[in-house]
Amino acid sequence: MNSQNAWIITGPTSGIGRRTALELAAYGTVVLVGRDPAKLAVVEQQIEARGGQAVPVVADFSDVGSVRRAAGEIVALGLQIAGVLNNAGIFPLESRTTRQGWDLTYATNHLGPFAFTEALVPHLPDGANVVFVCSAVEDPERRPAVMAGFRGARFVSVEASVRGEWKPGGSTRPGLDAYATSKQGNLATVLAFARETPRLRFNAVEPGFSPGSGLSRDAGPLLVFLSKYVLSPLAPMIKYWSTPKRAARVIAEVLTADSDASGVYYDERGKPMLGSAQVRDPGFSERVVAETRAFLATVPAAP
Ligand SMILES: NC(=O)c1ccc[n+]([C@@H]2O[C@H](COP(=O)([O-])OP(=O)(O)OC[C@H]3O[C@@H](n4cnc5c(N)ncnc54)[C@H](OP(=O)(O)O)[C@@H]3O)[C@@H](O)[C@H]2O)c1
Q1: Residues 84, 296: Cα–Cα separation, whole Å
Q2: pLDDT over 90 for what percent of the chain?
Q3: pLDDT confidence bin for 303, thresholds 50/70/90
Q4: Which of 21, 141, 257, 292 has minimal CB crowding within 10 Å?
Q5: Would the keyword Oxidoreductase be found if you checked this record's keyword annotation (predicted)?
Q6: What is the pLDDT of residues 32-45, one digit of tens each?
Q7: Residue 103: DSSP 8-state
Q8: CA nearest 31: which of 15, 61, 53, 13?
Q9: Is 13 in the pocket of ligand 1 (CB under 6 A)?
Q10: Is 215 in the pocket of ligand 1 (CB under 6 A)?
C-alpha cells in the first residue's frame, strides 16, 4: 500500500470510527474529520504515538456550511486521497432539530455526509473508494431491527425528512424513524453514485450491531453501562452483532481493498448483502439523490 495515500474518515473520535482511524494509520495519512478539536487531538496523538500520520479537520456534520468548508480545507491540503469513509452519525431516540429547524438526525447522518461527498468528488483521483457506514435498520424485513422497535425507513420525500416527517405506521419513537430513514439515505447515495460516477468507487458497510460504541449514549447511564460491559462481550457470539474493533477491521478492509467493486453493500463479516427492496429500486435511489441535491442547492454557500 502506498504510504503517500491519504484516507479521510469522519467521526473518528468514538466507537467504530476511532478504531477504524487507528487501523487506517497503517495505510497512510489519516485525515480526521470531527466536531470536537480536543477529541480529534487525542486520536491524532494516538496515531502519531504508533508512528502514523494524522491531520485533524473540524466539521460539524449537522451544518452543511461547516461540512463544505471542511471539504475545501481538505482539498487545499493537496493530499493524494485514496479513500473517504463517511462514518459520523447519531442516533437520538427523540426528535431534535438543528438551528435551522431541520431534523438533527437526518441532517447529521444524510445531508452532511452527502454535501461532504459532493464537495470532495471532483477532487478525488480515479479509483478512489468512498465508503458509507450504513445500517440494516432501513430494511423493514430485518427481523432483529423490527424486534428492537424499528419499522424500516419511513421516507416520504427529502423535504419531509428535513422537517422530521415520516411515513405513517412507523416506530413509537420518532428517533428510530429518523435514524432508519437517514441511513437509507446513505445507502441510496452509495447505490446511485456508483452508477453515476464509474471512475470512482462507492461502497457501503453495515458494521453489525455494536453495543460497545457511543451511539446509544442517549439510552441513559444504566443501559449504556450494560451495553458496554455486558452486551458488548457477547457480541462475537451473536449473529449480526459486532464490536467497534471487529467492525473497524471489516471497514478498513473494504475501504483499502485493491478491487474494482463499486455499489456493493457489505455485511458485518465483509460479505455482500442486500438492502431493502425499496432502496434497491434504482428509481428510488435516484429520487433520493435528486431531491437531496435540490434541497442542498437552496442552502447558501459558506461566507
Ligand atoms: N453502533 C452500532 O450498533 C451501529 C450499527 C449500524 C451502523 N452504525 C453506524 O456506525 C457509525 C458510527 O457509529 P458508532 O456506533 O461508532 O457511534 P459513536 O461511538 O457515537 O461515534 C459517532 C461518531 O460520529 C461523530 N459525530 C456525531 N455527530 C457529529 C456531528 N454533528 N459532526 C461531526 N461528527 C459527529 C461523533 O463525534 P463526537 O465524539 O464528537 O460525539 C463520533 O466520532 C454511524 O454512522 C452509525 O450510524 C452503528
Answers
A1: 20
A2: 86
A3: low
A4: 141
A5: yes
A6: 999 999 999 999 99
A7: B
A8: 53
A9: yes
A10: yes
Q: Which of 87, 114, 187, 231 to mutate to test the pocket of ligand 1 (most atoms within 8 A of CB)?
A: 87
Domain chopping of the chain, boundaries: 5-296
**Distance (Å, rounded) from C-alpha 290 to C-alpha 293?**
5
Cell reading at 108: 447529521
How many other C-beta atoms can be found within 10 angstroms of the C-beta atom of residue 242?
26
Nearest to 147 by CA among 113, 171, 126, 114: 171
More confident of the two residues 216 and 104: 104
Question: What is the longest distance spanned by two Cα atoms in the chain?
Answer: 52
Which H or E element spans position 34? Answer: strand 29-34
Cell representation of residue 208? 453489525
Secondary structure of residue 165 in the 3-state scheme? coil
Q: Which strand ranges, in their side-by-side order, compose the sheet holding 80-86?
A: 54-58, 29-34, 5-10, 80-86, 129-133, 201-205, 265-266
Alpha helices in the chain (DSSP H): 15-24, 37-49, 64-76, 104-106, 112-120, 143-147, 158-162, 174-196, 221-226, 232-234, 244-256, 277-280, 282-296
Hey, which CATH number is domain 5-296, 3.90.550.10, 1.10.10.10, 3.80.30.20, 3.40.50.720?
A: 3.40.50.720
**Using one digit for the tens of pLDDT, what is the confidence trace for 256-273?**
999 999 999 999 999 999
Ligand 1 mean position, distance from CA 295 (Å): 24
Query: Is 117 in contact with 201 (CB distance < 8 Å)?
Result: no
Query: Which pLDDT tens digit goes with each residue over 205-243?
Result: 999 998 878 887 777 777 777 777 777 777 788 888 889
Q: Answer whether residue 1 shows pLDDT above 60.
A: no
d(C-alpha 303, C-alpha 292), whole Å: 22
